[in-house]
Amino acid sequence: MDQPIIQIEQLDFAYEREEGGERIPALSGVDLSIFEGSFVAVIGQNGSGKSTLAKCLNALLLPGGGAVYVKGMDTKDDASVWEIRKTVGMVFQNPDNQLVSSIVEDDVAFGPENLGVEPSQIRRRVDEALQSVDMYEHRKKGPHLLSGGQKQRVAIAGVLAMESECIVLDEPTAMLDPSGRKEVMEIIHRLHQQGKTIILITHFMEEAAQADRVVIMEKGHVVFDGTPKEVFTAASKLESQHLDMPFAVQMAARLRKRGMNIPHDVITDQGLVEHLCASK
Amino acid sequence: MRIEVRDLTHIYSEGMPFETVALRNVSFTMEPGSFVGLIGHTGSGKSTLIQHLNGLLKPMEGKVLADGVDVTEKSEASRSVRRKIGLVFQYPEYQLFEETVLKDVCFGPRNLGMSQEVCEDRAFHALRLVGLDAEDVKDRSPFGLSGGEKRRVAIAGVLAMDPEVLILDEPTAGLDPKGHNDILDMIQKIRQARDLTILLVSHNMDDVARLADYVLVMENGALVMEGPPQWIYAQEEKLQQLGLSLPSATALMRLLARQGHPVRTDILSAAEAEEEILRVFG
Amino acid sequence: MAIKDITLGQYFPGESRIHRLDPRTKIIGTFVFLISLFLVDHFLGFALAGLFLLVLILVSGVPFRFLFRGLKPILFLIVFTMLINLFMTSGTALVALGPLTITEEGLYRASFMALRLVLLIFGSSLLTLVTKPITLTDGMERLMSPFNRLGLPSHELAMMMTIALRFIPTLLDETDKIMKAQTARGADFESGNLFRRAKGLIPLLVPLFVSAFRIAADLAMAMEARCYRGGQGRTRMNRMAFGKGDALAALILALYAAGILYLRGRLG
């Protein structure tokens, strides 16, 4: 069994309100192991702690209790922070507010420049990164000329140029229109196939359903950890978490209530159609 | 209030190298009390169109008439109809600025010249209509509220002006599934409580199918399709060409129909789909 | 959308010899030119400066009308300066207009000052017309870096300028959106006296500031996530190197400066 690339042990985190010093717990006793090359989706309502968890993975936030280890390095260790952030790259929710430069290729170069990479190497990395996200022709453009989906792809390229093994995406599609969401999800799949470890924070169950593993969070706790199929089988239990189920799963549940026998592994429209056709 | 749009054309940066035709000869009518859905790609002209409806943008050609009055005229009649057209932009919570929720919601009515008493009365009603506890939030800073609450306060700010027409530009943008459903329920509640004409701009076909009784489809600045949702969502190929999707229930029924099963495809909701599937396969 | 389209710093795209010069050459050149205008003490000096500028403009391919645009905001100042010098200079009277007299010296001074102002504007406009804003900030950072040892935070200053340039279109967009949203709520940004209008800006400025802070917080986090830690150990993808064009430009600049200094004190 390989060592997990990220190991989270009994992680606690609380935000401090400035006035009155009141502490708002965001994470309690979270235990999670992320293995290299896996595609994990972390889903939950607003306030479930999923974004807080994301920021603990690259030392943007430090644990109040417990620990987070990236390739064996403790995020609380000051000396390891840069190596950790090099290993775990992050893409944020707002496409605009994470782009530093007024030229696409300069922005993608920002990461490697910070790492002190040799200039000709940077050029190579930037070009390759932009090609992997299909944004190479736009390399000289200004971000204000790009769509939301394109900006997110540039942000992803920025992380790829740092040659991070793991990419954490914190609700990357929340502010995008349907075509932008599709673009980003396609790139995520492509990167996963190329061997990157992907951690996708999302509130869309349709996106989480595309991962190998779904972790559901509620009020700072992990309440479920399993495959998408396992999640949808426990669908009724999860309704209380106000999580949207893919349409096919909702329909299957409705039909089951009316007496039809639909197996629990039917989770897509195609699957439902095939089952119904076969039953005739 | 009836809104009539006739041959509306709008061009950005006219005469300059980046001149773009944002709207071309758009014409349609919104009947009083109707709920109209406006769909189309980003960049199809939806935002530009709605800004013409209350006179924020002036057309190059064509007119927008509210109850027969041109909204761009500089007359008392025009000012009077414009006041009755409420526009809620995307991410409306970004426009909050006052020290308290009450003051912010009162901003609109104050600008209309209402007395403090009337403003507060309207503000209370509006806050309740959007599902907030008026007594609880009125003295709080809008910046201390959650994202969903802020959005509701912003919408209340527009409702407090007592519009006859309410235009909502993607009111569920950026919200999680629960927030999304809450806002949709709120819109239905508003529709029932006040007899408004509503225009909803949305990317979500399920929402439009659920709420709208008429749908407008835009592409490249032009109005390419219009009609009741049943009819619009039956045009699968045309919608596919435009890069637009179907409501989930409709998509499922179409998949079944393509396999040769005699199912109705003019289905818009999960409940209808349930009945139809049971009828054919049960 | 319309506001966002404004090209910042009025960069006029092109591939001329001037465009392709190292930004440091252009910055230093502009500096030398602007100073030279203050060393001129005779119209012939301005003639030389004007000729030098004319050659630059022609080589750059920038249409003249773009340079004249730069004058528009300063037109008032030029006219005002001219009028002051025209009427307030004592000397041999030429024309009397009631209580005010136009003197020969006044006429001379007014035209001299005006010409200097105009050439100043043209000179600085040309710099922004032939250099992209981001290239300018890069050039300024390189020029300032030797002063690091004296405590000048050249990297931080340059980073501030880069980020400001990056977000100006975004903030202009935000401003547009907020104005429209508040106007839709009946706000009036146009009528009323100065005081009223200033107060009326609050519904615009508060949300704008809040937005700006939010952008800053998000951006800081993103920069940290990408291992930003100041200028220490940073490399740059775009290397700046002086070329033959720059050597030639330096030579021409030196000749021009010599010409100006030669003319100084020899005439009038």
Query: Class by helix and strand content of chain C?
Result: mainly alpha
- Determine the strand fraction of chain C and express it as a percent band: under 5%
The largest interface is:
A-C, 41 and 30 residues
Q: What's the CATH architecture of chain B?
A: 3-Layer(aba) Sandwich
- Name of the top-level CATH class of chain B: Alpha Beta
* Number of structural domains of chain B: 1
Side by side, the strands of the main sheet of chain C go 1-2
Chain oligomer state: heterotrimer
The shape of chain B is globular
Give the overall average pLDDT of chain B. Answer: 92
Question: How many strands of chain C?
Answer: 2
Q: Sheet bearing the most strands of chain C, described? A: 2 strands, antiparallel
Rg of chain B from C-alpha positions?
20 Å
- Uncertain stretches of 5 or more adjacent residues of chain C: 1-8
Structural class of chain B: alpha/beta
SSE arrangement:
The complex is a heterotrimer of chains A (280), B (282) and C (268).
Chain A: E1 6-16, E2 23-34, E3 39-43, H1 50-56, E4 65-70, E5 73-74, H2 81-87, E6 88-91, H3 104-114, H4 119-132, H5 148-160, E7 166-170, H6 178-193, E8 197-202, H7 205-208, E9 213-218, E10 221-226, H8 228-233, H9 235-239, H10 247-257, H11 269-279
Parallel strand pairs in A: 3-8, 3-9, 6-7, 7-8
Antiparallel strand pairs in A: 1-2, 1-4, 4-5, 9-10
Helix pairs in contact in A: 3-4, 3-5, 4-5, 5-6
Chain B: E1 3-12, E2 20-30, E3 35-40, H1 46-53, E4 61-66, E5 69-70, H2 76-83, E6 85-88, H3 101-111, H4 116-129, H5 134-137, H6 147-159, E7 165-169, H7 177-193, E8 197-201, H8 205-211, E9 214-219, E10 222-227, H9 229-232, H10 236-241, H11 248-258, H12 270-281
Parallel strand pairs in B: 3-8, 3-9, 6-7, 7-8
Antiparallel strand pairs in B: 1-2, 1-4, 4-5, 9-10
Chain C: H1 23-39, H2 43-60, H3 64-71, H4 75-88, E1 93-97, E2 100-103, H5 104-130, H6 133-144, H7 154-184, H8 194-200, H9 202-225, H10 244-263
Antiparallel strand pairs in C: 1-2
Helix pairs in contact in C: 1-5, 1-10, 2-5, 2-10, 3-5, 4-5, 6-7, 7-9
